[in-house]
Amino acid sequence: MATTASPPPLTTKAAGFENSSFHDYYEYFLEEAASMLCRKDEVLSFGRLLLPLLYFLIFVLGLGGNLLLLVVLLRYVPRGRMTEVYLLNLAISNLLFVVTLPFWGASVVWNWVFGSFLCKLVSTLYTVNFYSGIFFISCMSLDKYLEIVHGQHHCRLRTRAKSLLLATVLWAVALAASVPDMVFVQTVESPPGVWNCYAEFGGRGTEWKLSLRFMQNTLGFLLPLVAMVYFYSRIGCVLVRLRPPGQRRALRMTVALVVAFFVLWFPYNLTLFLHSLQDLRALWDCKVSQQLDYALQVTESIAFLHCCFVPVLYAFSSRRFRQYLKALLAAVLGRPQMPGPAPAPLSSCSESSGLTAQEEMTSVNDLGDRQAEDCASG
């Protein structure tokens, strides 16, 4: 990758600033060769075998799942509520993110063969959507917090105009985080006849890598995790106190959302932190370095699964969304829908729906729908 934040093991991506570059790996360890020799041939071979397969799998799953989510949102779901605005932006972000993975997978096998323009463009796209996806996941937890915990008191904060404004700000922040990609990423011919795509920091490579890695650990993991834990713990308290129908299912969903984020992102961010200690010479041993390189490749791929699973988890936590999906599948297959509640527009602070309380209270999203209806009637 482009702006490498660590001694990259094999990936050539420009991602969350440990977007490790397969060939930046060589650059880093050539710099270290003067002080010690640590061969990484097995690590390189492992990456050539593992990364293209994983990137292709994530690309297929992420492309299919997010395209389906996008079609349902655009065809059936009114975009008047904040949650739908964030979910729509999350689907777009994930689609743009997974589109970059085939480039990085190909570069692991054949080096960078796509030219200088695509090197900078793909690296920038990767980083922008790496951060924006995490931002929109955090905003969805904020929206549910305002919707369920504060209800009618914050209706004026949960308008379409304000949600679009916040989404614009988040895209701008993600774009700002990609500035190092725009500035430093370039194609480099090394050795002669072999082109690589990575960030060239000049004589301040270590300082830049440490700074960018710190930004990813904080802006891309710690702050969103703290926010999600706080928002969903408050939502959990409301569920326990009110004891609505479907309380247990809703509580399981709140826990699942936080756990999914932690499980997918914590191993990768921990590996980045350990790489930082290695750069600072607080942690150095050839065997340890090799283990960290293996860990980075595996945990990075696990983290990328967020674009496949998290949107589905959020979308399917709503009974209404499942109804929309059934309607879409029925339309595609040309089959009449089975008798049952027809999909109704999701409610906002200015509109309500006709679903029963029992239907709505079966998950966190459905509880939010009911709170929005109370807001409309209040």
Question: Could you explain the architecture of this structure?
Answer:
The protein is mostly helical. The protein has a domain at 40-95 and 130-176 and 203-327 and 355-377: Rhopdopsin 7-helix transmembrane proteins. It contains 13 helices and two strands. Strands 1-2 form a two-stranded antiparallel sheet. It is globular. The termini are far apart. The relative contact order is 0.15.
Written as H for each helix and E for each strand, in order along the chain, the element string is HHHHHHEEHHHHHHH
**Major sheet characteristics:** 2 strands, antiparallel
The number of E-state strands comes to 2
CATH superfamily of the domain at 40-95 and 130-176 and 203-327 and 355-377: Rhodopsin 7-helix transmembrane proteins
**So, CATH architecture of the domain at 40-95 and 130-176 and 203-327 and 355-377?**
Up-down Bundle
Mass-distribution shape: globular
Low-confidence stretches: 4-18, 20-35, 339-362, 372-378
- In spatial order, strands of the major sheet run 1-2
Tell me the distance between the termini: 51 Å
Mean pLDDT: 77
Radius of gyration: 23 Å
What's the CATH first level of the domain at 40-95 and 130-176 and 203-327 and 355-377? Mainly Alpha
Fraction of residues in helices? over 70%
CATH topology heading of the domain at 40-95 and 130-176 and 203-327 and 355-377: Rhopdopsin 7-helix transmembrane proteins
Strand composition percent: under 5%
Structural class: mainly alpha
Quickly count the helices: 13
